Amino acid sequence: MSASHLARPRPVRPRTEAEQRRRPDQRRWWTPWVYLAVPLVLLVAFTHVPAVSMFVYSLTDWDGLSPTRNFVGAGNYLDLFTRPKMLQVFVVSLFYLAGAAIQIVVALYFATILSFNTRFRNVFKGVLFFPYLINGVAIGFVFLYFFQPGGTLDTVVRLFGLEPHLWLGDPDLVNTSLAGVSVWRFMGLNMVLFLGAIQSIPPQLYEAASLDGANRWQQFRHIIVPGIKPIISLSAILAISGALSVFEIPFIMTGGSNNSETFVIQTIKLAFNFNKVGLASAAAVVLLAVVLLVTWVQRRLIPEERVELS
Amino acid sequence: MTAAHRRLSPSSGHGVLTVLKYASLLLASAVVVVPLLAIILTSLRTPGEMTTDPSPLSAPANWFNWENFQIAFAEGHLLRALGNTTFILFFSLLGTVFIGSMTAYAVDRFRFRGKKVVMTLFLVAALVPGVTTQVATYQVVNGLGVMNTLWAPVLLYMGTDIVSIYIFLQFIRSIPISLDEAARMDGARSLTVYWRIILPLLRPAIATVVIVKGVAIYNDFYIPFLYMPSEGLGTISTALFRFKGPFGAHWEVISAGAALVILPSLVVFLALQRFIYNGFAAGATK
Q1: Domain positions in chain B
Q2: Which one-letter DSSP state was computed for residue A224?
Q3: Least CB-CB distance to B4: which of A109, A207, A247?
Q4: What does the alpha-carbon distance between residue B192 and residue B188 come to, in Å, rounded to a whole number?
Q5: How many C-beta neighbours within 10 Å does residue B58 have?
Q6: Probe site for chain B from A29, A96, A112, A135 (most B CB atoms < 10 A)
Q7: Cβ <8 Å between A281 and B139
């Protein structure tokens, strides 16, 4: 860290006048704490306290309202893993994971072609990115209308002579449709991140490759992909924790009905509709544990400084 | 053709590839635009038109039929929602800028006991996704007595934002420490250094945080939905969500509401494009 490095005392020669003046505030130990007090209180109150108390709740049968709660040990966790719905919510997150994989590939494709000379480059970039900025509830309504029986998608599908479907009503199709909305919403962000990383690759590399007779695929494979590998891995990791914590789109569009319930929707319903705060906390602890595990794997796989580089 | 030329126009000579490239770009743009176009066309149609011609991509008879927008605005309480969202945006952004910059200032410009502990607290918080802990955060908000007030989202938005702190920390390192020293030679105290030197020089970081955070708050649904159930406290997101009940099958009104909510995002995007790309690139990778 730069600050501590600068502040390190030099033992050999006596301190110069400038060095003595360097940090006059250090004589008063509490000065930094004046700046940190409010941020730390808020941080602890809204992040650390909930995380710890959530773990405590998960060991009780608390309903969230009554003054008493009983210790039930691992009971909630056993209950959770023996619920038939539990498997279902993990299956649902696989749809979003598959969607995220497609999203990364599509984003990589468009980032690559937009990094080369393309007409109306900024228009295409803007159009593909804009969905990321749209309000989630508005997106929910846009696609409720889009997927409606006889709606936009059915109209388009008929133009190509295909059969209309119950895009949201069919339990086998609903998660594919919802994951598609998620790809529609987030692809542009991935594309812009990849595009930024591609543009920071030194142009001489392409020139050298061209001189060596490399074609576009070889340039992509041997210059672009290695050059932006850290950001691709980061996106992949974020996709996993993102797929597990999907909430907004399915909650707004289907309310979790019809096979589309996700882990977070289930947790929210347990806590606030069925007043099973203990059980819901256990579910949240499981989700937190999985997300932390994924993050830990990420830190293992990608050295810190390479992520910062992008 | 020289090598430099080929890099600038690598597709020259590959006619089929060029066609495929533009075809894919046009197809993707259509996928983005068509769902939104359906909403815009529908928002301009009358209920009568909707029953006689239910096709969602039909053009309105009168392109200047603002009636649905008036209904959405008045009966959907979007004006009140805009007021509430503006209130939340103003105080959360103000708080985030001060909290982020003060934390960065304290951590980067001072040497003190417990600094490692502070950094660890922030690092641990960055790992815990907010969406997982709401069950327990709900109890904290309840205990503070701010449940169902506009202050609940304000406190949550400014208290749990680690990304902004990282953006400020990243940026403050590039401000030369000699500037602080020069000011101190003139007898300035730490608060003066923060207020007169650090904060003004952090302006680009403040712009980034305001854009990234502002878009996130404007679009957030989860926190207002959970912490402000009363109808009078609807934000843009929750007020629009409540269109679902009363306007049921009146897609022309729901479309108008959705279009009204999307419009400010579009205006901000067109006006601040460059800042937005850079801001999200900075925010998402930290």
Answers
A1: 15-65, 85-248+270-285
A2: I
A3: A207
A4: 6
A5: 16
A6: A135
A7: no
Task: Name the phi and psi angles at A30, rounded to 5.
Answer: -85, -5
The domains of chain A, with CATH numbers, are 83-309 (1.10.3720.10)
Q: Does B269 touch chain A (CB under 8 A)?
A: yes
Take residue B250 and report the two structure tokens written for it: 């009146």
The CATH code of the domain at B85-248+270-285 is 1.10.3720.10
pTM for this predicted structure: 0.85
Q: Across the interface, do A47 and B133 touch by the CB < 8 Å criterion? A: yes
Q: Tens place of pLDDT for every residue, chain B, 286 residues?
A: 344 444 444 444 568 888 888 999 999 999 999 999 999 998 998 888 887 777 777 788 888 888 889 888 888 888 999 999 999 999 999 999 999 999 999 999 888 888 899 988 888 887 777 788 888 899 899 999 999 999 999 999 998 888 888 889 989 998 998 888 888 888 888 889 999 999 999 999 999 899 989 999 999 999 999 999 998 999 999 999 998 877 677 888 999 999 999 999 999 999 988 888 888 777 665 5
Are A143 and B35 in contact (CB < 8 Å)? Answer: yes
% helix, strand, coil for chain A, step of 5:
75, 0, 25
CB contact under 8 A, B125 and A47: yes
Measured torsion, CA atoms of residues B180, B183, B184, B187, in degrees rounded to the nearest 10: -160
User: Between A and B, how many residue pairs show a Cβ–Cβ distance under 8 A?
Assistant: 286
> Smallest CA–CA separation between B228 and chain A, in Å?
14
Interface check B226 vs A, CB under 8 A: yes
